[in-house]
Amino acid sequence: MPKLKTMTLEWTGDSVVFVDQRKLPLEEVYVRCTTHEETFAAIKDMIVRGAPAIGASAAFGYVLGAKEFDGNLNSDEGIRYMESVKERLASSRPTAVNLFWALDRMHKKFLNRLSSENIIDILEEEALTIAHEDIEVNKAIGKYGAELLRDGDTVLTHCNAGALATVDYGTALGVIRAAVEAGKKISVYADETRPYLQGARLTAWELMKDGIDVTLISDNMAGWVMSQGKINAVVVGADRIAANGDVANKIGTYSVAVLAQRHGIPFYVAAPLSTIDLLTPTGKEIPIEERSHKEITHVQGMQVAPNNVKCYNPAFDVTPWNLITGIITEKGVVRPPYDVTLKKLFD
Ligand SMILES: CSC[C@H]1O[C@H](OP(=O)(O)O)[C@H](O)[C@@H]1O
């Protein structure tokens, strides 16, 4: 009996199993990780992706690392080994702060309780707590966000900030789910989100499975759709929110925010407090991951560009705080000045 099983991942006690999100929606293939190195690879290769999902996955990877150690974890060697496990998992992807938040939390628990005989059980419990908390947090985000949407609204979203980007339920899609659960008729326009196509492959798939009205568009259609008056609000996820409210999210989010402002459409970011990084002052300091050029030159393995063409593939961009109408968190919706209101969330 798995100790935790959701659409995104399953914790069995000695492995973490992911649905391979690279293969969705055409194939549901599962990948079992029994070591921290395999979990590192699953995050790096985007078998599992999405800021909160990455954080929870790394937490389970940390537990697997502790289980691998052949010796006494309560020793200098054991402490050095767990520091190496933390650093290895932290090196999988640089932008989503949830990864570092979860690993810091796991490592703090390890250092505080390493003399306990059942340290591995304690670490497993902490990873499960992180996972279960994520689901509850997403439902709270959904509740607050749903209050911003009216019956009959059409929402545009970018990338996938759904159940597959979290342990379950989703952040931006959690807002849409909660509004529908509250009885509101909500339609969604989903950007396909080149180059990795999280919108086409994951968001459209999730919403159709839930019976929520979704229209898939290519990224370059967002402006035209807005100019036709089809969109009432934009709701997206986040990978890291800086102390001043600048938001790093999937590449293309910034363009959507500019278009939303141009058309007088409210632009909301849905994210848990674990995505807010008060130690990063502004978006300028957020590390932006660059990924393989093959993600641009190939679509699902089919080459669509000339051999050796020069490419630039930033996986994220930064939306300045002054383009963001509100940030929907599990503690409510915060509005500018974010350098003040975000800090208050942690009082
Ligand atoms: C709920 S966070 C989802 C966030 O993560 C995605 O990035 P990636 O698919 O590269 O992990 C994207 O930025 C989403 O908004």
Automatic annotation (TrEMBL):
<dbReference type="InterPro" id="IPR005251">
    <property type="entry name" value="IF-M1Pi"/>
</dbReference>
<keyword id="KW-0413">Isomerase</keyword>
<comment type="pathway">
    <text>Amino-acid biosynthesis; L-methionine biosynthesis via salvage pathway; L-methionine from S-methyl-5-thio-alpha-D-ribose 1-phosphate: step 1/6.</text>
</comment>
<dbReference type="GO" id="GO:0019509">
    <property type="term" value="P:L-methionine salvage from methylthioadenosine"/>
</dbReference>
<keyword id="KW-0028">Amino-acid biosynthesis</keyword>
<dbReference type="InterPro" id="IPR037171">
    <property type="entry name" value="NagB/RpiA_transferase-like"/>
</dbReference>
<keyword id="KW-0486">Methionine biosynthesis</keyword>
<feature type="binding site">
    <location>
        <begin position="49"/>
        <end position="51"/>
    </location>
    <ligand>
        <name>substrate</name>
    </ligand>
</feature>
<feature type="site" description="Transition state stabilizer">
    <location>
        <position position="159"/>
    </location>
</feature>
<dbReference type="InterPro" id="IPR011559">
    <property type="entry name" value="Initiation_fac_2B_a/b/d"/>
</dbReference>
<feature type="active site" description="Proton donor">
    <location>
        <position position="239"/>
    </location>
</feature>
<feature type="binding site">
    <location>
        <begin position="249"/>
        <end position="250"/>
    </location>
    <ligand>
        <name>substrate</name>
    </ligand>
</feature>
<dbReference type="Pfam" id="PF01008">
    <property type="entry name" value="IF-2B"/>
</dbReference>
<comment type="similarity">
    <text>Belongs to the EIF-2B alpha/beta/delta subunits family. MtnA subfamily.</text>
</comment>
<dbReference type="GO" id="GO:0046523">
    <property type="term" value="F:S-methyl-5-thioribose-1-phosphate isomerase activity"/>
</dbReference>
<feature type="binding site">
    <location>
        <position position="93"/>
    </location>
    <ligand>
        <name>substrate</name>
    </ligand>
</feature>
<dbReference type="InterPro" id="IPR000649">
    <property type="entry name" value="IF-2B-related"/>
</dbReference>
<comment type="function">
    <text>Catalyzes the interconversion of methylthioribose-1-phosphate (MTR-1-P) into methylthioribulose-1-phosphate (MTRu-1-P).</text>
</comment>
<dbReference type="InterPro" id="IPR042529">
    <property type="entry name" value="IF_2B-like_C"/>
</dbReference>
<feature type="binding site">
    <location>
        <position position="198"/>
    </location>
    <ligand>
        <name>substrate</name>
    </ligand>
</feature>
<protein>
    <recommendedName>
        <fullName>Methylthioribose-1-phosphate isomerase</fullName>
        <ecNumber>5.3.1.23</ecNumber>
    </recommendedName>
</protein>
<dbReference type="InterPro" id="IPR027363">
    <property type="entry name" value="M1Pi_N"/>
</dbReference>
